[in-house]
Design a protein that fits this description.
With about 210 residues, chain A is an alpha/beta fold. Chain A has helices at about 40-45, 130-140, 160-165, 180-200, and strands spanning about 25-30, 50-60, 75-85, 90-100, 115-120, 145-150, 175. The chains are: A alpha/beta (about 210), B alpha+beta (about 130).
C-alpha cells in the first residue's frame, strides 16, 4: 500500500466515530463454516458497515491436511469480518465473524481467549461442519451458545434432537435465528449474554 | 430424517504454558505488550482502543504512522485501524509499538473474559442490546 498518499486513506465517517469517552471494548466471536451467515449476522446488528481485517499465513502455519493447492503457494490470506455496537458512552462491543478452522485462530492474539463468549452459527444442511468448532471451544473453556441459521431449504430438526446430535449439555442454549434480521441476531446475542450471566451467578465459568 | 451425530472428544488439558523466554508454539506474534489500566501488562488485542495524543503528527512520523495518527484522532480499535490501513494485524503490532514507545498514542486495554465474569458488565451489555 502506498502511504505517501495517506491523506486520502478513508477513515470512519464522522457519524461512525467513537466518542472520546470510550474507555474499553469487549468482543464476541461468531464462528462457523464458510457460507453459514457469519458476515450476515455481524452486518445485521452492527452500527457500522462491517469491516475486514486480514492476516497472512505462511506455509509453516498451515496444517498438513490443508488443501490450498499447488506446492508453489507459500502464503494464504485469511480474512475476518467484524462489526461494532456502542453499548454506552464508555463501553463498546465488537463482533468478529471467524472462520471455523482452528488453525486460523492463532493469527489474532487472544481472539477466543479474551472474548466474552462465542456464538456457533450452524446450518442444518451441513451440521457436521460445526462439530470440530464446538470441540475446540470446549477444550479452551470458551462459553458458547448455538444459533441455527434457518435457511428456507434446510432440514428442520427438533431442538432436543439437535442437542442430542450435537452432544451438548442441557445448559447450553440452542436457538433458531434468521441472521438477516437485526432483531433475530440481537436475540442471539442476548441469549449468549444471559447464558454468560447465569454462569457468573453459579460461578461455574472456568 | 436423523441429523448426523457429533462424537464428543475427551477434553485433554492444554499443554502447560511455555516458560519465560521460550517461544510459544503457534503464537509467533505475541511480543507486543502495552500497559493495562492498573499497571499490569496486557498484550495488544484486536479491540484495544487507540487514541492519538496529539492531533498533528510530528514531522518525523513515517507516512504509515501519520496515516494511523490521523485515523485515531477519536478512539479506534486495532481491528478498525487494520481494516482502514489495509495492514495485517501483525503489522499493526509493529506500528503501534513504535507509536506507543514514542508516546504519540494512548492504548485503552480491552475487557477480557475472566475466571469470574463481571455481572455488572454483562448487565450493561444486555441493556445496550435491548436498545438496538
Amino acid at each position: 500500500m502506498d502511504f505517501n498518499g495517506s491523506d486520502t486513506i478513508p477513515g470512519p465517517r464522522t457519524e461512525d466515530q467513537l466518542p472520546h469517552t470510550a474507555q474499553a471494548a469487549a468482543k464476541i466471536v461468531i464462528v462457523g463454516g464458510f457460507g453459514v451467515g457469519k458476515t450476515t449476522m455481524v452486518g445485521s446488528v452492527s452500527e457500522i458497515t462491517p469491516l475486514t481485517t486480514e492476516e497472512t499465513m505462511t506455509q509453516a502455519g498451515i496444517g498438513v491436511d490443508d488443501n490450498f493447492g499447488s506446492a508453489s503457494k507459500t502464503a494464504t490470506t485469511v480474512a475476518m469480518d467484524f462489526g461494532r455496537i456502542s453499548i454506552t458512552d464508555q463501553l463498546v462491543l465488537y463482533l468478529f465473524g471467524t472462520p471455523g478452522q482452528q488453525r486460523f485462530w492463532f493469527l489474532w492474539n487472544g481472539l477466543f481467549e479474551g472474548a466474552l463468549g462465542a456464538v456457533v452459527l450452524v446450518d442444518t444442511r451441513r451440521l457436521e461442519v460445526s462439530f470440530d468448532v464446538m470441540g475446540r471451544l470446549e477444550e479452551r473453556g470458551v462459553p458458547f451458545v448455538v444459533a441455527i441459521n434457518s435457511f428456507p431449504d434446510a432440514p428442520r430438526y427438533d431442538i432436543e434432537e439437535l442437542r442430542t446430535a450435537l452432544d451438548l449439555t442441557p445448559d447450553i442454549p440452542i436457538i433458531e435465528c434468521d441472521a438477516r434480521r437485526r432483531a433475530s441476531s440481537r436475540d442471539v446475542l442476548m441469549t449468549l449474554m444471559r447464558f454468560l450471566h447465569s454462569l457468573a451467578m453459579t460461578g461455574s465459568l472456568t | 430424517m436423523t441429523p448426523p451425530q457429533r462424537q464428543r472428544r475427551d477434553i485433554v488439558p492444554e499443554p502447560p504454558a511455555p516458560k519465560e523466554g521460550e517461544d510459544k508454539p503457534g503464537n509467533p506474534e505475541r511480543m507486543y505488550v502495552v500497559a493495562g489500566p492498573d499497571g499490569e501488562r496486557a498484550e495488544l488485542d484486536l479491540v484495544t482502543l487507540i487514541v492519538a495524543r496529539a492531533t498533528d503528527p510530528p514531522p518525523s512520523a513515517s507516512p504509515e504512522q501519520a496515516a494511523l495518527l490521523r485515523l485515531c484522532a477519536a478512539p479506534l480499535s486495532v481491528a478498525e485501524l487494520s481494516a482502514y490501513l489495509h495492514l495485517p494485524f501483525s503489522a499493526m503490532g509493529v506500528l503501534l509499538t513504535e507509536l506507543l514507545t514514542a508516546e504519540l498514542v494512548q492504548a485503552r486495554a480491552p475487557i477480557v473474559r475472566k475466571a469470574r465474569s463481571d455481572r455488572s458488565l454483562l448487565e450493561a451489555v444486555m441493556n445496550g442490546l435491548q436498545r438496538l
